[in-house]
Each structure stands twice: as C-alpha cells, then as structure tokens.
Amino acid sequence: MTKSEPQQLTDELDQILDRERAALMKGDLGKLEDLLAKKEKIIAKLNTISDLERDTLARVQTKVSRNQDLLDSAMEGIRSVAARMAELRKIRKGLDVYDQTGRRTRYGTRNTGKLEKKA
Fold this sequence. Notes:
The protein is mainly alpha-helical. Helices cover 66% and strands 7% of the residues. It has a two-stranded antiparallel sheet with strand order 1-2. A hairpin with a 5-residue loop joins strand 1 and strand 2. It is elongated, with a radius of gyration of 25 Å. The protein starts with a helix and ends in a 12-residue tail after the last strand.
C-alpha cells in the first residue's frame, strides 16, 4: 500500500458524498443505490487500513453526517406521502359515521374512476 492510498480513498469518498448530496437535494433517489455500493467498497478498504489519521477522515465524517440528515428527511417525506395516500384510499372507500347510540354506519362513495376538472 502506498502512503497516498488513504488520501486517494478519502478523496474518492469525498466525491461520492458530494454526488450523493446532489442526488438527495434533487430528489433523485434512484442514484443512491449505485452510490451506496461505491461508498461501501471504499469504506471497506478504509477499514482495512490500520494507520489512518483522524484528520484525514474528519472532513468526510462531516459530509456523511450531513448526507444522513438529508436522507432521514427524504425518508420522512416519503413516509408522510405514503400515509397521506393511505388516507386518500380509505376515504375513497367510504365514510364511517356514528349515530347517537354509537353505532357505526358506512356511506359508500361513488367511484366513477374519472377525474373531473373544474375551472
């Protein structure tokens, strides 16, 4: 192993993290799988190097944390959309109401399958 290999690996990881951030910011989640595979390979190589300096990894650690925050936010947004879609599907099936005695009654909706556009 050459002395510059750890620096080369961290530089490569740094570039991948920048591309990962760009994909997250654009909402291009399809690119993340490929970037994750590349990132894992580099991290596996870095884990085999016993004499890594802390300063060498400090910059990429900051980017890893930043990207993780972005990824968490993206996942939260996806979960929110999924929950909203589930609510809409439930509403499309009908409306449940309760009378004064506490009995539930379901009112079905007419499902024409058409979207009406109003001006």
